[in-house]
Structures are given as C-alpha cells and as structure tokens.
Design goal:
alpha/beta; 22 helices; about 550 residues; eight-stranded parallel beta barrel
Length: about 550
C-alpha cells in the first residue's frame, strides 16, 4: 500500500518578516499551528527545516510540541525534501506545504490527495490564479519518485529553492481544481498567507475569532477572510481614504520608454532582477500591455521562476489594423488573437484584468470588441474588464458601463483636468470602479532637469523651480516623493502605476512610496502652484509634434 507523508517546510530566516514561523497565531507559534492543522485528519507529517543554527529554536519548539522534525540544507530545499523522504518508495506520495500558510488542514490535504489519485500525472498542485483560491490556501502532491528525479535533474538555483518547478514542467500540470470547481466564486484576490506584517495582522484576526484554531475547517475560515482583510486595512485605495498601493508599470521592461530614459530597454538579466526585487518587496500587481514589446514575456518568465502569485493588468493590442467597417468576425478574431498572445507570453490560461488600450475601441465596430471581451469573461478566460483613458470624458463614459470595473487615467501634479465635478460624480456613482493612476511622473519629466523637457516648452525651468520650491515648502525629500505623495492624497485613486528604468531606481521609488501622502490642503497648494499648464504638455504624444 502507498504511504503518504506531509512535509511542512519552514525556516526562521525569512527576509520580509523575519522569524514569522515563530509568531503566535491562535495561541500557537505559526509553524506549530500549520503542522497541527495539517495533521488533524491523522496523516503522517514531518517538519523539514535547516541544519543552520538560525533554525535551532524552531526545531526545539516543534520537537517540544510533539512534531517530528527533519533538518537538512538551508539553501537547497529540494535536496532537503529528497533526504526527508528517502525511506519512501518511488510510488509513495509526498504532500508539500509551507509553514507560512495556516489555512490548509488535513481535509484540504486529503482533497488534493484524492484528486491526485484520480489522475495519472506524477504531480498536482494548487494555483491561486487558475483555481480561484486565495493566495496561501495551497499545497502540492507528488510521488517520491518524481521528487527524486527533480533532485537529480535540477540545475538552477530557482529549482533548488522552490522544489517543484521541474516537476510541474515535466508533468505539464499546475492547477488542481479549476476556477469555481470547489468554491462558489473566484476569491484569488484575497490572501491567507503570512508574508508581511500586514498579512500577519490579517491572519491573527482570522484565528482570533476561531474557537478551535487547530480543528477549524478550511472552508469555514474562508468566510472570515474578507472581513479580516478589511479590519487589517488590506483593502487599500478603494475610496476609503487610505493610501493606494503600488502597481509596477512595465513599459520600460519591454521597450525604450520615457523622455528621461537614457539607458534604453534593460537587459534580460536586469529586467528579471527588477521583477524579482519587486516581488520580494511585496509588489504583486503588474501593469503591462501587448504593445509593450517583450514586457509580457519577461513577466511570465519571472513569475514562473519565483512561483509567487501576482495580479496582472494587461492591455488589448491597439486594434489599429482593424478597419472601421470590419465585420464582427474580423473584430472577434483580432480580440482573441491579442488575448491568446498575452496568455501565451504571460504563461497563464487566464488574464486577471484586460484593459482596452484605446478607449475608442470600446464603441467602434458597434461595440463588437467589448462584447467579445465580455464573452471571454463569461468563459473564464478573462477576469475583469477595463480601459486605459486619456481624458476625463473617456473616463466618464467608461464609468457609465457596468461591465468595466477598471479605468486607468494619466494623473500627476500638473494635471488639473481630473478636478472637475463631472468626473468625480461619475466615479462616486461607481464604488466598485477601481481608478488606477499612471503617468505619475509624466514619463519622468517631473523628476528631471529642465534640459530634458520638450524644447518648445518655454516654461520648463519655471516648472522645475516650482517643483523644487514645493519640496522645500512641504518638507518632501525630493520630486519623486512629492509626485507620489500628491497622487496618493486623493482617496478615489485605487492604485499608483509606477515604472522604473533600473533596479536602483525601483528601490528609490519604493522608498519614497513609504512616505506619508499629502494632506488635502497640501494637495490644493500644489494645484495652485501650476495654474498655467499647456494642454500639449499633458499629452506625451504631442511633445514631438
């Protein structure tokens, strides 16, 4: 008969939240809580940690709680797994779980094992985006033989650290459930992991309302997530006055972009370094587009290597090659071609959010493009729809269509067009509409010297001087800080889309994003400082005309 062993990996030296596996949740250290929950249906479990001195306390704690502990390599987690299961036969079954995800329990592991047994692949695992499950409700199942093969063949640091990339690749299988097959809806936007301090507060709130943290069924805990996320302040930027989170804009990663960009498109190594740095610093939302050169492909590579979930906003290819009198069939073909190419480049079977790159395409061809995008949404190929706009009039028209849940606007401290009452009234009528602010630095113009500005702009030096004076008056560290703090002063902004040319620049942006937003009075002071901005300056498409 097959043996089944749950291997729970844990270490103390986590970088984003050090020693998180020792933090108390539900009255128990997190690692102990995870182990006991996974054992609550009677399965065999081993906690696999490192033999490094940093994990001595973790090992003693778990052994004292009656949990079997194995210690192996700190960095080569794949080999640690292979050593931990060397007594199993090749056809015995290993369940991989991690000690920063407290929701999976014995019943969840049993469900995965049951599905694994019904299939023929040597690997099966959850995939938050594809399964509709929240990030952190996850585990993987594979044979001991598949694990040994992975240990023998792995030749990259990523495979050694993340254990299963080679198995997934060879089995061509990732998702265990498929969207909505075990849940009533898609809740992959929620988190039930402990990766940051905010995550910890969230999970502590979930288990604080739980009479028996060890035995509580995973399904019942899901019902507590939305409330806990709100209590812990995780739903930021949803018209509630809290600062909007950062989305990494990736135009610079796929092509030379921005008037201030002198380095061109970054190399593959630099691009992957930037994406990895973003993920390591809790940026898990990315804005991209079919029109951004190789950006989608680079994102797909990065996410496949690090195996961290992310929410991706991509844009439909500008349908400039589709004639105004095109048939519905021609329009459908163009939309499907763009969506399928995005899925292929991003290595996904489903797009989280699809934006129309040109708002005009929403109504061209008798609305056929939007109608087919909505049909793809019904089929589960697309999650939500939206549009990238260039002026308040386009945004107002988008807000009037309930099919659109996202609108991306160019918004910065020079642009007063968005202060109009009509725009504010339109978004106030749509509390479900997420407003994403791009062009926060106006393609780098607002954080550059006057010699970078368009030659025809006679007031360049004056604008640069005013920005510097505002930094001094408002106590801001530099123009980057001022630009970010200004846009974050508006509670109707759901996210800030920020791009960077290099890892160092991205690090600087993230540092500035930790500063406090401007107050409403300070934002008004900024607006009053720029009463005479020519409309041409707000549209980069007209800078060279």
């Amino acid at each position: 008969m097959r043996r089944y062993r749950i291997v729970l990996q844990a270490r103390t030296t986590s970088q984003r939240l050090p020693a998180k596996v020792l933090l108390p949740i539900g009255g128990l250290p997190l690692a102990v809580l995870c182990a006991r929950r996974l054992q609550n249906s009677g399965r065999e479990l081993v906690l696999a940690t490192s033999d490094d001195a940093s994990d001595d306390q973790l090992a003693r704690l778990c052994e004292g709680a009656g949990i079997r502990v194995f210690r192996g390599s700190l960095d080569d987690v794949l080999h640690r797994y292979a050593e931990c299961t060397q007594d199993l036969r090749d056809d015995d079954v290993v369940v991989r779980a991690t000690a920063d995800n407290p929701l999976p329990d014995g019943a969840f592991a049993d469900l995965l094992i049951e599905r694994f047994e019904r299939g023929s692949a040597a690997y099966l695992g959850t995939d938050a985006a594809a399964d509709g499950l929240p990030y952190g409700l996850s585990a993987e199942v594979f044979t001991a033989g598949a694990l040994r093969e992975a240990d023998r063949l792995a030749d990259s640091r990523g495979e050694r650290e993340h254990v299963t990339p080679g198995m997934r690749r060879r089995s061509a299988r990732t998702g265990a459930f498929g969207v909505r097959s075990i849940l009533d809806g898609d809740i992959s936007h929620l988190r039930c992991t402990v990766d940051t301090l905010q995550d910890y507060l969230n999970m502590a709130a979930v288990f604080a309302r739980c009479p028996d943290p060890v035995q509580a069924p995973w399904r019942s805990l899901l019902d507590k997530l939305p409330r806990a996320a709100h209590d812990a302040g995780a739903n930021r930027g949803l018209h509630d006055g809290t600062p909007a989170p950062i989305v990494l804009g990736t135009a610079q990663l796929g092509m030379p972009y921005g008037i201030a960009n002198r380095a061109g498109c970054p190399s593959e190594e630099e691009a992957q370094s930037m994406l990895g740095f973003a993920l390591a610093n809790s940026i898990d939302q990315f804005d991209t587009a079919r029109a951004y050169g190789i950006a989608e492909r680079r994102i797909g590579v990065a996410l496949a290597q690090c195996m961290r979930p992310a929410r991706i906003y991509t844009k439909l290819a500008p349908l400039t090659d589709v004639a105004d009198d095109a048939t519905d069939r021609e329009v459908v073909h163009a939309v499907e071609a763009s969506v399928m190419r995005s899925c292929h480049a991003l290595r996904r079977s489903r797009l989280d959010v699809l934006l129309f790159h040109r708002a005009a395409d929403l109504t061209r061809w008798r609305g056929a493009a939007l109608a087919h995008a909505a049909a793809l949404q019904e089929e589960g190929v697309v999650g939500e729809l939206g549009a990238s706009v260039y002026d308040p009039e386009e945004a107002i028209r988008c807000a009037a269509d309930p099919r659109l849940k996202h609108v991306q606007i160019p918004f910065n401290l020079l642009d007063r067009r968005w202060a109009g009452a009509a725009f504010r009234q339109a978004i106030d009528r749509r509390p479900d509409l997420r407003v994403h602010a791009r062009s926060v630095f106006l393609q780098g113009l607002l954080i550059s010297d006057a010699n970078i500005w368009p030659k025809w702009s006679a007031s360049s030096a004056c604008f640069v001087d005013r920005i510097g004076e505002l930094c001094r008056t408002l106590g801001r560290r530099n123009p980057i800080d001022l630009c970010i703090a200004y846009v974050r002063a508006f509670p109707w902004v759901s996210t800030l889309v920020l791009g960077a040319d290099s890892r160092d620049q991205l690090a600087a942006l993230l540092e500035m994003a930790r500063e406090r937003p401007l107050s409403s009075g300070e934002a008004e002071l900024v607006q009053d400082a720029f009463p005479d901005v020519p409309a041409r300056l707000l549209n980069p498409a007209e800078w060279h005309s």
